[in-house]
Design brief:
Layout (H helix, E strand, L loop, with lengths): L4 H11 L4 H5 L3 H14 L1 H6 L3 H9 L14 H21 L5 H17 L4 E2 L2 H14 L7 H14 L2 E2 L9 H35 L1 H12 L11 H10 L7 H15 L8 H28 L1
Helix pairs in contact: 3-10, 6-7, 6-9, 6-10, 7-8, 7-9, 8-9, 10-13, 12-14, 13-14
């Protein structure tokens, strides 16, 4: 069925950041890329407006459009590969902290570069791209900043081995195409969504204590110290660290301590290990200040 330019413009306007116009034109890799980056972070979606007429003509063409054995070198495509590779690498560090970074980071970077390289009628050699990503990540010991050189190396490998993409014969049905896109999207979105929910639960517990801490600080500034219940300065500090009212009961102290320890455990914050380790130590010290004497008192009672 012939593709209509007016329909493509309508889908671009209504669902462009989700890649609906690319799905309509049979550009599934481009559609998936837009789904995962919200239209190429907005900029790619806007630039699509100037290319729609050409893509519609290509979709309606029955013959091959290849004008050479190798596609022309595209600096824009290279920049896109590097940016998406960095984005995928950072998302892997956020969503997969329990997976060794020597595996998760270069794999995510390579997949991001490969997805960008397969946009349109082009492709590249996957094993070359993944090898470049893994070797560069290993050279930088999988540090978080290694996503930049890994993405650059993988993008250059993709450009070095670029080639035309052979169309699938016969073309897949729409149901099969949607199934493939859905599976790929869930493979990306489920780990990211789980990580965000896990982090949000801990942060909400910490943020929920902010009004109480603000009230306590205001009372201290006004000289209203009666609410401290005779707590020492060290105990007041520990209460602020754990986000509980001064001289709270042992149950409340333990509950807040458990929530914050899960949030700031170094194993769950590999991308900010130094900050997490410092906060983890502070939480343990604060818990000893508040919980230690009270556990001893409870045991002696």
């Amino acid at each position: 069925m012939a593709k209509r330019l007016l329909v493509a413009y309508g889908l671009w306007a209504l669902g462009g950041p989700l890649g609906l116009h690319h799905l309509y034109l049979g550009r599934d890799s481009h559609a998936l890329l837009w789904m995962l980056t919200l239209g190429g972070f907005g900029a790619g979606w806007l630039s699509d407006l100037w290319n729609l007429h050409r893509w519609v003509a290509t979709a309606n063409s029955t013959g091959r459009q290849h004008r050479g054995a190798v596609p022309a070198l595209s600096p824009i495509r290279l920049v896109g590969q590097v940016v998406v590779g960095i984005y995928f690498g950072l998302m892997a560090a956020l969503a997969l902290p329990w997976v060794p970074q020597l595996l998760a980071q270069p794999l995510a970077v390579g997949l991001g570069v490969l997805l960008t390289a397969s946009v349109g009628q082009q492709s590249t050699k996957a094993h070359r791209v993944l090898t470049a990503a893994f070797l560069t990540s290993l050279l930088f010991q999988a540090q978080l900043l290694a996503v930049l050189p890994s993405s650059l190396a993988a993008g250059m490998a993709a450009q070095r081995h670029r080639r035309h993409q052979h169309p699938i014969e016969p073309p897949l049905r729409l149901r099969a195409r949607l199934f493939r896109l859905g599976m790929a999207y869930m493979a990306f979105a489920i780990p990211v969504g789980y990580s965000l929910l896990h982090s949000t639960a801990g942060v909400l517990g910490w943020v929920g204590a902010i009004p109480m801490r603000s009230f306590q600080s205001l009372a201290w500034l006004l000289g209203l110290k009666a609410g401290t219940g005779g707590c020492t300065e060290r105990q007041l500090w520990a209460s602020q660290v754990l986000g509980v009212p001064p001289c709270s009961g042992i149950e409340e102290v333990q509950r807040s301590y458990r929530e914050l320890v899960k949030l700031w455990h170094p194993d769950h914050n590999m991308q900010r290990a130094e900050e997490a380790e410092q906060r983890f130590i502070e939480l343990q010290e604060a818990y000893e200040v508040l919980g230690g004497p009270r556990r001893a008192a409870a045991g002696g009672g």
